[in-house]
Amino acid sequence: MKKALLLIACLTFGFIQAQDYSQIIKSYLGVNRSQLGLQPQDIENLNVNSHSFSKSLSAENVYVTQLINGIPVVNSISSFVIKGGEVNYAKVGFVVNANQKVNTTTASISASQAINSAASILGVSSPSGLQVLETVSSNSFIFNNGSISQDNIPVKLVYELNENNTLRLAWDLSIYYLDGSHYYSVRVDAISGDIISKNDWVVSCTFGERPHDHVKKQSFLGESVLFESNAMEVTSAGGAVYRVFPLPTESPNHGTDQLVSDPANAVASPFGWHDNDGVAGAEFTITRGNNVIARDDIDGNNTGGLSPDGGATLTFDFPYQFDTAPVNMLDAATTNLFYWNNIMHDVWYQYGFDEASGNFQDNNYGNGGNGNDFVDAQAQDGGGTNNANFSTPPDGNNGRMQMFLWSPAGPAGDPLTINNGPLMGDYTGVPATFGAPLPEDIAITTDLALVVDDNAGASVDENDACDMITNGTDLDGKIVVIRRGECEFGFKILAAENEGAVAVIMVNNVPDAPIAMGPGDFGDQVTIPGIMVSQADGDAIIAALLNGDTVNGSLINAGPYNIDGDLDNGIIAHEYGHGISNRLTGGPSAAGCLGNEEQMGEGWSDWFGLMLTMQSTDTRTDINGIGTYATGEPTDGGGIREAPYSTDFSINDYTYDDIKGNVSVPHGVGFVWATMLWEMTWDLVDEYGFDADFYNGTGGNNIAMQLVIDGLKLQGCNPGYIDGRDAILEADLIANGGANQCLIWGAFARRGLGVSASQGSSNNLFDGTEAYDEPTTPNCLLANGDRGSIDDNIIIFPNPSNGQVNIRAVQNGGAAVATIYDINGRKMITQDIDLTSTATLNASSLSTGVYILTINGSDYTHTTKLIIE
């Protein structure tokens, strides 16, 4: 009974607090309005989007949107920290003098017209059967998918500030492409029907090509090591077991696969990884559960797909086979993908990416936030190559991770053999990324036939199968030869298959090496294998066929084999990291706060991967390349960024100014940010040591993980580098009393983000200025205005407190007297303190409750609420 009463009391308290947030924030904005440059009408209406309690900050993170005429202003989301019933920190993004900037209050086009206009401009087909499923309010609706979107289409009126400083009335809506390639959130002008702005919730990382060199570096020497399977066995204690490359192993080149038992964290996943009803006992025996479903999408159609089954004992022990096509270890790869998605969920849950903060869970177990949004992780996705992506719609909508195959490492194999005539011999070729794989045991052997089409279209080559095929009977049962041309590879090979072809040889039409053919719009329908050969080899074959020669050939998989991105755990972590940074920046209902030019999303994602693959033997100057396994590099390879991650400037010398055109966008921009975070991480590890316990450790790596997560929560919408830096500094002030200010400043200043650095507009990469100076103030604590938050000189921590209260002055506070009063005004404790450094006040004699703490100095008085737990 006592527990029930306590629960009711807690829920009641939480409800009251939720109701008070709006008033607390309005009061704060009113007091500080002039400092913020806001007009009274700018703060009259606001909406509390979401809030969540942060254990590390001992405070509530509250996210608020500005309303004009009851309509939200896009990207006005402001972050507040409320502690002890007061605003402790604020990052305000409201539009100043907003009422004077609106262009209209009435829409000229309807919500449905806005959907049709967006579809037309985006180039998708016109909606069919479009209808309203729910009227949320007079300005907000939910439409069905109109056969153009995977999800229903929400539409609401918003205001968006444009480059002319005008707030334009617009319809905000989202369309998730049927092929999963884009999930566009767009603003359609409510007067003209034009698209004002759009951002893609699918972050496609396009890892493909290596970037240019920046400085001369040491050569990255070393041999790629492919470990044997079954290196370590772990006996199950009765729960689920998975054969994977486990935390913190980055890839098969970095360590061995292991059979791990019961890896689910009891706090983050209290009912295990195969539950979704909150009752003991698994609901699924496949790689599906509360946090993620992992399944293949070889067809590239985002539907269906198979998940490996662990049976009643949840034993997912499947072999890894690296000397064959990746499809032959699909179960093992999908298991690894499932494991690492769950690891990302469970580890970062400890640092505050929980239900109320917008994490990815089917059932939120009553812990706040919106459920029904587990991650759909797709293994060996047939929709592309040399890539990976993650889509992050707002909280309550599923995230989706697509992991692709990568081009084989090393030279192409010789899958084609000509069995007769003057062309007899083996030929180099590259298999297509779609269709059936080449056989590995019994070759496809038959005569070759050259395709002929009617040349009626734009193509001028009758052998490229871009127009209607005219010799279909000649192709039946043959290996069909096609010249590369004007149309997609998937279209051409499907056309040959429809005429009875058993395989296709594509002839390159340029003298370059053959390439791995992509599927295009039709490749998901192809069920036969295909390869590409060089122009020289192919032209010789075509000439023989045109001469009337009978050419008999065989096709078999001769390697090298594609590399499976599902086994590059750094890339999996990177993709999941996009979900974290997008859900935490601006709060879980936003998902669109990282669309500005100087945004660091790719950097946070790289850093997430680096953090979960750190090991006790690592050093700060090590070479840490991103994606070395997927790209076929050795473990000390340079990776796919402008440079590897290292604090050694002879390996990575990038600084803030390099984002001005010297790096790629957005990956290079993120890379420079992650370089700064890596500096900070290693400074903290040097100070506090490394802790291999990623969940509950106390090392410098754990401190860095907490600071970055808290910084994501504190920064405002559309942050730039300095916004991100200041949010981390503020997180340290709130959680740690500023204990690491000098260390954090030193790390960022080393890479050009010192005290005097300026950001300019976060929508402009070229107007910032780097600087290398560090604070000269005691403990590196800057004055209030320099911190970017409205606060006074005194920092009290922790608050709530268990009896020991620390007091610190930003500027030298000198001698002072601290007095604690109860809520009736009775003096409980008084103590002389010295605020030239941190002072400690012993309040352990006080009972649990709310008190008033007053600090009287020579020329100042500070009063605040103090909570004793």
Structural features:
alpha+beta; Nuclear Transport Factor 2, Chain: A; Elastase, domain 1; 6-stranded antiparallel sheet; secreted; metalloendopeptidase activity; metal-binding; hydrolase
> How many domain units?
6
The percentage helix is 10-25%
Overall CATH architecture of the largest domain: Roll
Look at the helices and sheets and give the structural class.
alpha+beta
Basic shape:
globular
Cα gyration radius (Å) = 30 Å
Count of helices? Answer: 14
Largest sheet: 8 strands, mixed
Q: How much of the residues is beta strand, in percent?
A: 15-25%
Q: What can you see in these coordinates?
A:
The protein is α+β, with helices and mostly antiparallel strands and 869 residues long. It has 6 domains: 2-89, Roll (Nuclear Transport Factor 2, Chain: A), CATH 3.10.450; 111-200, Nuclear Transport Factor 2, Chain: A; 241-408 and 564-594, Elastase, domain 1 (Roll); 416-559, Glucose Oxidase, domain 1; 605-787, Neutral Protease Domain 2 (Neutral Protease, domain 2); 794-868, Immunoglobulin-like. Helices cover 21% and strands 23% of the residues. It contains 14 helices and 35 strands. It has an 8-stranded mixed sheet with strand order 21-20-27-23-24-25-26-22, with helices on both faces. A hairpin with a 4-residue loop joins strand 34 (849-856) and strand 35. The longest helix has 30 residues, at 2-31. The radius of gyration is 30 Å and the shape is globular.
